[in-house]
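Because showing beats explaining, we think one record worth quoting, sequence and C-alpha cells together, and here it is:
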Amino acid sequence: MSEHPPITDADRDNPSSAFIERMRAQYPTERENDLMLTRKMQHRAGPSFDGASFDAMNGYIGALLRDKIDGAFRLADQRWFSGGASKIQMGFTLHWNEPGVGPTAIRLVARMEPAESLNSTSRQREFELLTAFAGVIPVPRTYWVDPDGRWFPEPALVYAFAEGSTKPRAQQGKVAGIGTNYGPELRKRLVPDFVACLAKIHNFDASQHAFTAFDRPSVGTTQSALWQLNRARRIWEEDRGEDLPLMEVASNWLERNLPTLDNVSVVHGDYRSGNFLFDEETARITAVLDWERGYLGDRHRDLAWTTAEQYGHWSEDGKTFLASGIAPIDELLERYEEASGLRVDPVRLRYYRIFNCYQIVVTALASSYRVVRLGKTHQDVLIAWIEAAAFGAMEELRRELEGDL
C-alpha cells in the first residue's frame, strides 16, 4: 500500500509544499530542471496570465536596460512576435552607444515565460547555449538574461533578431515545424546545412565551456536517460488531468530499458523543422533557434526527435517518409554519421523514439491541459489545440511497445 494519499486535481491546481517535495523526492532530475519545475509549482497557485500588455513589456525591457547600459538609450519599433507555443516574444530596436562599437541601432528580441509555460525550461540554459555556439553554427547573438525574474515578472532572455524564414513562402499560414513541406528542390539544398549543424552540436566539447546551469552525466552509466525520464514523469504527475494506463506501461518500460551513455554531447532537445531559419534563395541556415530544452546527454535523443513522425511527412511518391521534411530517415542518419564521425546505435535510437512519444503525450495531454485549465498562458487556444498531438504519439507508443510486453 502506498504511503501517500492519491493525487487529486486540487493537489495539482494548488500544490502544497509537501506535495512539491514529494514530487522532487520521487523523481530526482538535473538541478536546473528541478529548479524550474519547483518554481512552476510554487507559483501555480498565484495569479493567472494577466496579458503582459504592450506597455508592461516595454517597462520590463526598460528596467533591465537601465541596469545593464551605461548612458542613454532609446527603444523603437516595438512589436509582438507571433509563433512559439510557450513563450512571449517582443521585438524592438535598441538605439545605444554599444561598447567597442559606438552609436548604433540593433534589432533585438525579448523572450519571456508566461505565468506558466507549456515547457518549464531555463532561460539561463538557453542563454549559455546560444553564447557557447556563437561562431560554431549560426545562432542569434545573446545580450542579457534575467534567469530569476528580477526585471521581468518571469524569467526572460534578450538576444539579437535573426533574419530568415522557418518555412517556404508557399507554406506561410501553416504552423511551422508540423509537416513543413520544403519541396523537392529546396529540401535537397537544405539537408547539408541541416545535418552539419546537428553534427557540430553533438561534437561540441562542453568540458571546455563554462556552463553553470548544466549537470554532466557520467559515461558508462544510465544517469542521463534516468534524469530525462524522471523529468517527464514528474511533469506527468504534476500536470495530468486523468489516468492513462498506457503511460504507466511506457514509463515502466523506459525505466527497465535505460540505455548506457557512450559519449556526452550537447543535446539541442528540439532539433527539427520549424526550429531553424533559412534563406530561401541560398538554402543556407541562418539561425538555429529554440534551445530551451537543451542539456548534456545522449545524442540519440536529438536523432530520434529529428526523425519523429510528428515533424515529417511523406514525399511526393507517397512511399518515402521525409524526416523533418528534409530527407529520408536512412539518408539523413547516414549523412549524420559521415558528418559527425559518431555512430548511430539503432537500439538507443528506438529507446529515444519511445521516450519522445512519451514526452509528447506528457506535454500535449498533461501540461497543455493544466496550463489552459488554470489560464496561465497567452496562447490558450493554440495550446488547447496541441492536445490533439497526444493521440498520434499514443498510437505510436502502443505500436512500439506491443511486441515487448
